[in-house]
Amino acid sequence: MGGDDERIVAVIMVGGPTKGTRFRPLSLNIPKPLFPLAGQPMVHHPISACKKIPNLDQIYLIGFYEEREFALYVSSISNELKVPVRYLKEEKPHGSAGALYNFRDLIMENDPSHIFLLNCDVCCSFPLPEMLEAHRTYGGMGTLLVIKVSAESASQFGELVADPVTKELLHYTEKPETFVSDLINCGVYVFTPEIFTAIGDVSTQQKDRAHLKHISSFEALQPAMRSPPTDFVRLDQDILSPLAGKKQLFTHETMDFWEQIKTPGMSLKCSGLYLAQFRFTYPHLLASGDGTKSANIIGDVYIHPSAKVHPSAKIGPNVTVSANARVGAGTRLISCIILDDVEIKENAVIIHSIVGWKSSIGKWSRVQGGGDYSSKLGITILGEGVTVEDEVVLINCIVLPHKTMNDSVQEEIIL
Q: pTM of whole model > 0.85?
């Protein structure tokens, strides 16, 4: 066990506006990390998991967004959790390990004994205290959270081989061409400060290599042949792969849920996973009601306190109703995210859909997706300020902001 005087910091990678392009149209007017899942911003889930780490000193968010986009959220979450949360803006991409290294002086300021590193677009139960315990037992430089997935889907991720007894990471390969293992990297790590030496070594090797190339060939005269900058270091290819099998890195397997949030469809699925987790972690956040004084609630549902929901509405499972939304009489909501200031008029039906801010859904209309969370048109997405007229049916559509839909459409992207 670590002493009471030790400090631990957590770093969460939040990416930037060039990254979440697959998340449009929802990321057009809000940074993807602030998009709400289960009624809380996406980044809120890893942040509140960090709060459970013993001796947590500070949480850093690293990304390319402008600081003003995170300023409000960072100050409110710092107050709420009573842990300082700070946003650090990268001026240019350094890679996942390079970004950590770029801010090493700040991160190491209070001499932490361990550094947690999390990716914002990961949805899981974040078993961080358990990882820390396991990491201390192994005595290595770093521990990765891993999970078993189906052999078919493994190649989309970083596949790895670990010793079944010691849990040492023996082999690591990012998105391999051929099947290596059904164990994949979850994008959640805990390191000792030695990680900075390892990243620094890679950076130095890259500088040396670049320098050698520069003086030993005419490449310097060929601007088109520029290699990536020498301070660009990727955690997976440049750190994990070479250090595998050297008794430095270990694995901690989670038996819980894990998903990557790359698309709006996956955000709807992950919202449901977090709502289900609330039953055990924050049951007070889940709505209840039997349709007498308040709406009839089925399964896991979050309703913002400021939303107005008619008692004859039937809501759930997996539904999030955001601030100032108005849900009319006789409406039926299943597996959907209703964003701020949406109006849903009487007897409308919304299934497997995300309804953008300030949108309006007419009487007896139907907004529905097929529920295939991984395909592009597997759910229906309405951008900000979309108006769906009375009795219009939209199935498996993406509608860009500020459109008025007065005809029924299916399987279309409405520009």
A: yes
**What are the tokens at 408?**
């029924």
Looking at residue 19, its pLDDT comes to 56
Q: What is the pLDDT of residue 397?
A: 96
pLDDT in tens, 258-304: 999 989 999 999 999 999 999 999 999 999 998 888 999 999 999 99
Residue 41: helix, strand or coil by DSSP?
Answer: strand
User: Distance between CA 396 and CA 226 in Å, rounded?
Assistant: 43
Phi and psi of 172, rounded to 5°?
-140, 130
Helix (H), strand (E), coil (C) string for 126-188:
CCHHHHHHHHHHHCCCEEEEEEECCHHHHCCCEEEEECCCCCEEEEEEECCCCCCCCEEEEEE
| Closest to 413 in 3D by CA, of 392, 395, 399, 394 | 399
User: From its phi and psi, is residue 38 left (phi > 0), alpha (psi between -120 and 50) or beta?
Assistant: left
Domain boundaries, the chain: 8-262, 286-414
Architecture of domain 8-262: Alpha-Beta Complex (3.90)
**Residue 80 near residue 72 (C-beta atoms within 8 A):** no
Identify the CATH class of 286-414.
mainly beta
The 10 Å CB-count burial string (b at 16+, else e) for 58-67 is: bbbbbbbbee
